[in-house]
Amino acid sequence: MTAGQEPAARQRLLSRWTTRRWLRVGVSVALSLLAVLSGLGIWAMDRAASVTTDLVNTRSPALTNSIRLEAALVNQETGIRGYGLTGQKEFLEPYQQGLADEKAAVDRLNQLLVGNPRAQADQRTVLSRAGAWQQRIATPISSAPAGAPAPLASDRAAEGRITFDRLRQAMTTQQDHLVDARSNAVDDLARAERLRNWVFTAIALVIVLLAVAVFEGLRRCITGPLSTLGTAAREVARGRFDHPIDVVGPADLRRLASDVDSMRLRLVEELRFSEGTRALLDEQTEDLKRSNTELEQFAYVASHDLQEPLRKVSSFTQLLQRRYGGQLDDKADQYIAYAVDGANRMQSLINDLLTFSRVGRVHNDHQSVDLEQVLSRTLDTLSVAVEESGAEIIHDVLPAVVGDPTQLGMLWQNLLSNAIKFRSPDRPPRIHISVVSLGDVWEFAVSDNGIGIAPEFREKVFILFQRLHTKDAYPGTGIGLAMCKKVVEFHDGAIRIDPEVELGTRVVFTLPAVTAATAAPDRETQS
Known about the structure:
Layout: H1 5-15, H2 19-86, H3 92-112, H4 117-143, H5 151-155, H6 157-237, H7 251-305, H8 307-324, H9 330-358, E1 367-370, H10 371-381, H11 383-389, E2 392-395, E3 400-403, H12 405-421, E4 430-437, E5 441-448, H13 480-490, E6 495-497, E7 505-512
Parallel strand pairs: 2-4
Antiparallel strand pairs: 1-3, 4-5, 5-7, 6-7
């Protein structure tokens, strides 16, 4: 691999790293670096603590005890000199105290000077000369009887002075060496503290640089790409679907950006499709408006232009039947009867079709409707049919619903008139109206004991002008249940024939209940 290919290969390798891998490598490097820095800090602190311990526990106490040893020997020399000149025992007290102090100082120095050959050599010199002075001067004079000057003090005065001066010289040398050792320890402590301070300064600087590197790495590898991705996503959310989403960074963030961009492209395709669908829907809406307009025109024609000539045909055929009935042959009377019946049926069909077309278009006043009142008015209208058929009509307490009172009256009239019309010849009609609550809707059921509906016709009966019987057996145009279905569906309900009823027919339908939000809604007129 050439020198120019190595950076490119390394760049490709790094480009495959995910956020997790970058974080894992970064945390590992940071922890390793912090471990090294912690080790350096611990070493620097241990170094300073060791030097401090040596200075406080060895060097300074050694110098102090050396001075105490010198003071003890001076007390001994003072006491011996005074006792030798006067013979008074009071002078032996400083001597005796000096001996005790000397022993304590020597014992302590022996402990402190372990591992220090030069200091131990100085100590041996001091003890040797102190022993010589005590043997030649101090012990013999202190052993002399009290009460009179000791002759030995005068005889050995010069020797004692020379011996003690040599002892002083040895102690001075020892103390000089101990002072030098203590000064060296102080210098070592200062250097250790400076080293510790520099180490901790370097640790703090490295931690700051590490924090900066971490924040910069997070910015470049995580927060920066995420921010770029968020900005691009917001641009798309504002409607700029042509804005591409391209993010640099770890491999997983680039994959996420690619997925988001794929969603953007999918949205663009869906938007194009929805625009086409909307255009088609607008076209269909226009067709529906045109169809409604044509239906209104047809209703006008049916109610005026068609009915006028039809009334003339019906009137003149009836007049012809009354004037010439019985004067012509039987065939002519039959033809005239056919013409009169056809004209009447055509007029009934046109009237029913006109009524059907007006559902949801003419009567469209949605409000809270008391079905008890609507049913009472319907029963008054059907009172003659009820009395002639001997029908028994019972009902539950009917609630208030949201709807158009005129259309709901048509619904009850068609359902009840069908139940009376299609009664069984073997028994008087018995009709029951029940109601149950299903939350925000009411489910009504109109049950009768009539001739019933065969299973294969339970859907067909709701189709316009569909008849299951001849007009001679049951009069009518076959528009009643189709009218009921249109009224119920206009009120956002559903209607069906209950398939589980074997005797008679049970028509089940739903209507919206009155709620606080729909107590008195004003619904816009639909065409």
